[in-house]
Design brief:
single chain; alpha/beta; Rossmann fold; six-stranded mixed beta sheet
Length: 235
């Protein structure tokens, strides 16, 4: 599909579903096949339980893609296993890069964090998404930066896929209220001041995404940027 046609399709979807609640939107996409074959991509981070819980109510066997960079906090890995079991998610797929040759000492994040993210996150995700026509994430406008103008539906440049952001217009208060209403467990590191959770070497405590890639201009890992490319040596 030409990029212009994809953009027009996303615009039509935004007009059609702009007032639909997030849970209903997930049902349309994952249970009713609105966009064709779709997957949910989750980091199992600080706010991930909201979208995962919603998905479990409408399509518990939908594919959930989790990128294990092999540099994650142990708490994130434990949280992923706990939420998957609690919500009875039947199709969680754990993605890993082949890093033995490309980053054998796990030091690429120090010399070139862009290349590290491309190797450990972007490449395995793009490979896993090839069979899908659409994918969803938990990004929200209040997270700021490039996310400030998020739409519910957006065209993914160069792939022909539609990206879905069911919680794009949610506020921090709505997130907290959902956690409380459904008695959802919090990621253990949120109680230690981590507002955003990524790889352990590149994440420090901080409000919102302020703890990610400190002292660098980098604000995104790359999986949500157009035309992702793998820099450096390929696996």
């Amino acid at each position: 599909m030409l990029q212009s046609n994809l953009a027009a399709k996303a615009e039509q979807l935004n007009l059609r579903f702009q007032a639909l609640p997030a849970e209903s939107l997930l049902k349309e996409v994952f249970a009713n096949g609105l966009l064709g074959r779709a997957a949910l991509v989750s980091s199992f981070g600080g706010e991930a339980a909201v979208l995962l819980h919603m998905l479990a109510q409408v399509a518990p066997e939908a594919p959930v893609l989790f990128i294990d960079t092999e540099l994650l906090f142990p708490e994130t890995l434990a949280y992923q296993a706990a939420l998957s079991a609690r919500f009875r998610l039947a199709n969680v797929q754990i993605l890993r890069a082949e890093t033995a040759k490309a980053d054998p000492l796990a030091r690429l994040h120090r010399s070139d964090p862009e290349a590290c993210c491309a190797l450990r996150k972007t490449a395995p995700l793009q490979a896993a998404l090839r069979p899908y026509a659409a994918w969803a994430s938990g990004r929200k406008r209040f997270q700021g930066g490039l996310r400030s103008a998020l739409e519910l539906f957006e065209p993914e440049h160069g792939t022909g896929r539609i990206k879905l952001n069911p919680l794009a217009n949610w506020s921090p208060k709505q997130i907290s209220s959902y956690f409380e209403a459904h008695d959802l467990p919090r990621h253990p590191l949120t109680q230690k001041g981590y507002g955003s959770l990524g790889c352990a070497p590149c994440t420090d405590p901080g409000t919102g995404r302020a703890g990610r890639w400190q002292d660098r201009a980098k604000t995104e890992c790359g999986i949500h940027l157009p035309s992702p490319t793998l820099k450096g040596n390929t696996p």
